[in-house]
Amino acid sequence: MSLPTHFTLNTGAKIPAVGLGTWQSKPGEVRKAVAYALKDGYRHIDAALIYGNEVEVGQGIVDSGVPRKDIFLTSKLWNTDHPNVAEGLEKSLKSLGVDYLDLYLIHWPVRLVPNESHPLLPVNPDGTRAVDRAWNMSETWRQMEEVYKIGKVKAIGVANWSIPYLEDLEKSWTVVPAVNQVELHPLLPQHELRAWCHQRGILLEAYSPLGSTGAPIAADEAIQAMAAKYNVSPAAILISYHINRGDVVLPKSVSEGRITSNHKELVSLEQADLDVLNGLAAQGKAKRINTPLWGFDLGFADWYGPVKSV
Ligand SMILES: NC(=O)c1ccc[n+]([C@@H]2O[C@H](COP(=O)([O-])OP(=O)(O)OC[C@H]3O[C@@H](n4cnc5c(N)ncnc54)[C@H](OP(=O)(O)O)[C@@H]3O)[C@@H](O)[C@H]2O)c1
Predict the structure, then answer these.
(1) H or E element, residue 85
(2) Which residues does the UniProt record annotate as the domain NADP-dependent oxidoreductase (predicted)?
(3) What is the domain count for the chain?
(4) Cα(210) to centroid of ligand 1, in Å?
(5) Is the pLDDT of residue 125 over 80?
(6) Does residue 266 contact residue 243 with C-beta atoms inside 8 Å?
(7) Spatial separation of the C-alpha atoms in residues 130 and 115, rounded to whole Å
(8) If pLDDT is split at 50, 70 and 90, which confidence band does 303 have?
(9) Average pLDDT estimate for 29-34
(10) Backbone dihedral angles phi then psi of residue 159, each to the nearest 5 degrees
(11) Arithmetic mean of pLDDT over the chain
(12) Residue 77: CATH number of its domain
């Protein structure tokens, strides 16, 4: 069985199954990484204003020579811009040097109130994050729908949204999010969240598929054993897992060899092996790696949930 190269969003647009992540890709590295990836056949780049490197990402796109229209480009509304979606979007478009995005996501269901402490991560006098808990996320989504309807972005979605947050948003959305981008890997398979999203036509995108910095999940013995069985790298098992499940996957690398293997060394996994991967978290290995200190629970109760095929 050959693996899908693309999935279809609820807008009807095709999205490449593998996208290049750019978080923590340093200045001086990310431009080359993006240019190399696009020349090597990637057609999907995952960016964000908070990564602080969108200018270089845009330069890498130009360097690659690949036409803009052939690239699926995502960026994300930062937390300080919830009341001003059009302005937040404009900053990313300008930095990236493009006039539209293929996908724009609300980066977190968390509004931060700008103050003089820090331009993007403002804190209160006591050092806690300057979060506005009273902010109505439906208003942010209403403004996301506006930039979608005028065509500045071809699709809109969310990132880091748990079921309770989505249930709340569902009460007022007129455009169903195309995507929910969340931490997703065999140690955090999020079975219930996937089922909820799939029932509504929301595609999941897997971030930190290798466990983020240093790819720690690749060292897991079950992953290593499966890599030996399929004669591929552990990273290839972790990336292939998502495509086999029907989710987009966003591995980050600035190394040419890894950028190549991360989209070319993919394998079709037997159902029994998918079941093993789907069950690892429930066997006591559940782990969430990205836990920013927003100061409150984001409602992700489902860390490993029941194992079921969805
Ligand atoms: N929406 C959100 O809140 C959110 C949060 C986190 C991430 N993301 C997105 O998801 C992307 C991926 O997540 P991530 O950056 O956290 O981590 P990741 O892709 O799970 O892992 C990246 C780490 O693995 C290494 N690596 C890459 N390919 C490898 C391979 N084949 N073998 C061994 N090591 C390998 C990378 O090093 P080298 O670069 O040196 O290869 C880097 O240290 C991000 O870049 C970002 O675009 C979104």
Answers:
(1) helix 85-96
(2) 18-273
(3) 1
(4) 6
(5) yes
(6) yes
(7) 8
(8) low
(9) 98
(10) -140, 140
(11) 95
(12) 3.20.20.100
CB-ligand 1 contact for 252 (6 Å cutoff): yes
**Other Cβ atoms within 10 Å of 20 Cβ, number:** 29
- Closest by CA position to 181, among listed 200, 204, 155: 204
Q: Are 78 and 48 in contact (CB under 8 A)?
A: yes
198 within some domain: yes
Q: Compute, in angstroms, the gap from residue 208 CA to the centroid of ligand 1.
A: 5
> Which is the closest atom of ligand 1 to the Cα of 46?
47
If you write DSSP's letter for every residue of 94-121 in order, what string do you get? HHHT-S-BSEEEES-S--B--BTTBSSS
| Residue 45 parent element (H or E) | strand 44-46
Here the tokens at position 305 are 């949930």
Ligand 1 in reach of 181 Cβ (< 6 A): yes
Asked if the structure places residue 9 within a domain, the reply is no
Q: Which domain holds residue 95?
A: 14-216+245-264
Token match 């591995």: residue?
251
Tokens, residue 85: 């979606």
Q: How far apart are CA 38 and CA 59, in angstroms?
A: 12
Residue 174 corresponds to which tokens in the numbers above?
């007129």
Structure tokens at 50: 């908070």
**From atom 36 of ligand 1, which residue's Cα is the shortest distance away?**
253
Distance, CA 25 to ligand 1 centroid (Å)? Answer: 9
Q: How confident is the model over 28-48, as a mean pLDDT?
A: 97
| Type of residue numbered 176 | V
Burial annotation 140-157 (CB, 10 A radius, 16+ → b, else e): bbebbbebbeeebbbbbb
Q: Is residue 240 part of a domain?
A: no
Instruction: Verify whether residue 51 is a known catalytic residue.
Output: yes
For residue 166, being part of any structural domain is answered with yes
Whole-number Å distance, alpha carbon 213 to ligand 1 midpoint, is: 6
- Whether residue 256 has its Cβ less than 6 Å from ligand 1: no
The residue whose CA has the least distance to atom 5 of ligand 1 is: 207
Which of 36, 51, 207, 304 is flagged as catalytic? 51
- State the average pLDDT over residues 270-277: 98
307 pLDDT higher than 60: no
